[in-house]
TrEMBL record:
Localisation: Cytoplasm
Phylogenetic placement of the source organism: Bacteria, Pseudomonadati, Pseudomonadota, Alphaproteobacteria, Hyphomicrobiales
UniProt cross-references to InterPro entries, sorted A to Z: G6P_isomerase_archaea/bacteria, G6P_isomerase_prok, RmlC-like_jellyroll, RmlC_Cupin_sf
Top enzyme class: isomerase
UniProt protein name: Glucose-6-phosphate isomerase
Residues that coordinate or bind Fe cation: 92, 94, 101, 140
Keyword Cytoplasm in annotation: yes
Native species: Mesorhizobium onobrychidis
Gene that specifies this protein: pgiA
UniProt keywords, alphabetically: Cytoplasm, Gluconeogenesis, Glycolysis, Iron, Isomerase, Metal-binding
UniProt cross-references to Pfam families, sorted A to Z: GPI
Length: 213
């Protein structure tokens, strides 16, 4: 008999963001996130109290990394700000840039900040019971704009991979999300630099879709 991957159920604990039967997890502590935020002085001032604390945690189920398979898991992020900028993930584009992703809000108030290779920006709210579709080719980063922990399920093709350098090379994402009057607001990142035509076409050149007959 062909030995298939064993079907698996993964119970999620919303209070901790832990997922049963996870195959892996990682934590990003405050000190790991140096350089992510606009206000370097505010970051340094928080380092003494926040340095070792976990800002976000990813708990995942990764059956294989073969095309056609899926990786899924839970991201949970603490509430907080560095200066006026909300806590966020590092953000990435998929190494196979044409691979999409789905997020499903479980708890809290989040945003998905997305940027196309040419620098178009989109923001989708990810509250509890909101599904967010990140289409192929969009750089994506999640942001906790609430006062509570943000907990989201994610799911993406197992052969996607992550490229984190794309954001650093452009001087950050084009927009930042900061506290505004009674909520969040999007502001321009003055350090952002457009990607050159060569990089843009290399990204789009990765499209590997087979068109059904
Ligand atoms: O990988 P980061 O940008 O730090 O974000 C943390 C995690 O966010 C989401 O949950 C993605 O699906 C994960 O692939 C990612 O690892
Ligand atoms: Fe992703």
């Amino acid at each position: 008999m062909t030995r298939l991957f064993e079907p698996t159920g993964c119970k999620v604990d919303l209070s901790t963001g832990a997922m049963a039967n996870a195959t892996g997890s990682y934590q990003k502590r405050f000190r790991d996130l140096d350089g992510l935020y606009a206000d370097a002085a505010a970051f340094e001032a928080m380092r003494a109290t926040w340095g070792e604390r976990i800002v976000y945690e990813v708990c995942e189920f990764r059956p294989t990394e073969l095309s056609g398979d899926l990786i899924f898991g839970i991201t949970s992020m603490q509430p907080g700000k560095v200066g006026d900028e909300y806590f966020m993930t590092r953000g990435h584009i998929h190494k196979q840039a044409d691979r999409p992703e789905i997020y499903y809000g479980q708890k809290g108030h989040g945003l998905m900040l997305m940027e196309s290779p040419e620098g178009e920006v989109r923001i989708v709210t990810v509250d509890a019971q909101t599904v967010c579709y990140v289409p192929p080719f969009w750089i994506h980063r999640s942001i906790n704009v609430g006062d509570d922990e943000l907990v989201m399920l994610f799911c993406y093709p197992a052969d996607s991979g992550q490229d984190y350098e794309i954001i650093a090379r452009s001087g950050g994402m084009r927009s930042r999300v900061v506290a505004g009057d009674g909520g969040w607001k999007e502001v321009d990142n003055p350090d952002w630099r457009p990607r050159d035509a060569e990089l843009i076409s290399a990204l789009y050149g990765q499209r590997s879709r087979t068109v059904p007959a």
